[in-house]
Amino acid sequence: MIETLTEGQVIHALRQDEYANWSYNGACALTEYLFELEESIGEQIELDPIAWRCEFTEYESLEEWAIAYFGEDEDEHPCNIAEYIRDNSTLIEFEGGIIVQDF
Predict the structure, then answer these.
(1) What gap in Å lies between CA 18 and CA 89, rounded to an integer?
(2) Do 90 and 21 touch, CB atoms closer than 8 A?
(3) Which among 1, 35, 73, 89 is least buried, having the fewest CB atoms inside 10 angstroms?
(4) What is the Cα–Cα distance from 94 to 65, expressed in whole angstroms?
């Protein structure tokens, strides 16, 4: 039995997860990404906010991600951080931050 959800319902479910701390814009960006992923793979994705919390992390900036991942900021690292993330994972950029699929 499958229930089709609207983007608003998915955003609400993400924001209800008290351990994830998604910003509103982050929840919108992740939801948009997931809907596009469904479309591109031709399969429905099961609503699983806990798995998404474990699989994706929101950051305020590329620099914040670089500090968390490399222990240094973007300017001190020799490569293009956005390119590095895209080469190794998924980068979702939105107004106010980024979301990275953990790797």
Answers:
(1) 25
(2) no
(3) 1
(4) 14
